[in-house]
Amino acid sequence: MVTEFSFLGSKGDARIDFHLSDDAMNLTADFYPPEAGRLFLVQSQVEAFLADKGIVHGIQSRELQRAIYECNTEKKHLENVVVAVGTPPKKEVPAYWRLEPGLFQERSQTPEGKIDYKEWSPYIVVHANQLLARAVAPKPGELGYNVRGEAIPYGKKDVVKILPGRNTYIHGGEAYAKISGRLIQDRTYFHVDDALEVEEVGYATGHIKFPGHVLVKNGVLEGFKVWVGQDLKVNATLDATDVYVHGNLEVKGGVLGKMRGLVRVGGDFNADFAENAKIDVLGNAFIRKTILHSEVMVNGDFSMGESGKVLASLLMVRGNCELAEVGNPTRGARIVVGIDFVLKRKADALQLVMIDLENQKIALKSLPNPDQTALARLELLEKELAALVQQYNDLNVKMVNNEAALKVTGHVHPSSIIELGHVVYEVREPLHRKVFRLSPDGHSIKLENLPVDKK
Fold first, then answer.
1. Which pLDDT belongs to residue 120?
2. Distance of CA 127 to the CA centre of its chain
């Protein structure tokens, strides 16, 4: 209930009606000008009146002065003028950790204003030594006062108190990530986890870009990219649009591609099959069943299951290679053993540059009357080509593993091509249970018979 009281001299004098709020935090007033020849308002008298009424805190002297002036000189009737305002209390703030606001991202939008669900991720990914939270020092509370000068208790502010947890460290009042991974916040702690588990890579997750280990239970939808800093395990068929795994890749099904994307594995690779896929593996690889219409490059050893078959594909292995069958009665396959595919690609790129420089040389030499600039350019091209040829030759030597061998426990069908080092062997008739090795001089391929299994 609002408390009301009035400042009034004799009848016809200027008058003020005051209204005090229930909580005594606000005092407002209505000002009435004097009648002709009657007494004006005097600020000192009004303030003394208020003090007598117990109004001693938060007097708005300038606002009171303005209202009195307008009421006296301009004969204005003024309503709801704020005359006094209480001071609210400030709650005590206990010490707590405040997470960095930049950690929380929003769904990115396309230029048309639509959400790009592929680019958006529901996970907060942080990197080693990234700032996660800052310690907020405690602040004491401050009493409040109403316009009567009565103290108001300050109480304590409610804050969410979470503490640095697993895989974090504290330095100088700040909390940092000890490892790269996913930032997780629960009721008590915030911590960093180096493992991520998802049902499926699709519109609910966006592209996956995670620095730790990832487990995908139900596959990867077409068009979604996966970048994993450690190991990736997929418990279904992997639709390979663009997959990069720094560690090992294990696929419980097979790898299906459309020859546009690429699967790149920094460690070992294990799957049931590869179909229409491009796969690069820096470690060892094992494909249990089939390689079909694919390009598989392996810089370690490679093996397949007892019925493992390579058909209409290119398989390049730097280490030892063991297969069950190469091609079929109507189609062959190309098997390259003992070649480092990374160095071969560098050599192939150098060769393209050399061809371009050679063409420039031919064009300059065909000039009927070359000037000094052309001659100088020709001399420079000669030097550049000589250096590139040396690099190319060095790469060709380094890329070959002379000790690597190909072992086929079943059939090698005609129209297949076997290469060891830089030596090519065209299969013209069916072969069975053979080992292919490079000759000691590196100029030919030797075939050895595998002994028949005795059961």
1. 65
2. 10
Report phi then psi at 290, rounded to 5: -140, 145
Angle at 325 between CA 323 and CA 329, to 5 degrees: 160
Q: Residue 127 contacts by C-beta under 8 Å, 6 or more apart in sequence?
A: 177, 180, 211
Cα 230 from Cα 233, distance rounded (Å): 10
DSSP state of 141: -
Q: What is the pTM of this model?
A: 0.73
Q: Give the mean model confidence (pLDDT) for residues 346-358.
A: 95
Q: Is residue 80 classed as helix, strand or coil in its secondary structure?
A: strand
When the pLDDT of each residue in the chain is averaged and rounded to a whole number, the result is 91
**What angle (nearest 5°) sits at the alpha carbon of residue 59, between those of residues 56 and 63?**
160
- Give the rounded distance of the alpha carbon of 84 from its chain centre: 55
| Kind plus residue range of the DSSP H or E element containing 377 | helix 372-398
The terminus-to-terminus CA distance of the chain in angstroms comes to: 103
Got the DSSP string for 14-63? -EEEEEE-TTSSEEEEEEEPPPTTSPPP-HHHHHHHHHHTT--SSB-HHH
Tell how many helices (H) and how many strands (E) occur in the chain.
4, 39
Unique residue bearing structure tokens 């005594």? 24
**From 61-65, 224-228, 313-317, 347-351, the region with the lowest mean pLDDT:** 224-228
**Rounded Cα gap, residues 83 and 24, in angstroms:** 12
Give the 3-state secondary structure of residue 445.
strand
pLDDT tens-place string over residues 88-141: 999 999 999 999 988 865 544 444 445 455 666 778 889 999 999 999 999 999
Question: Which token pair is 388?
Answer: 């590139």
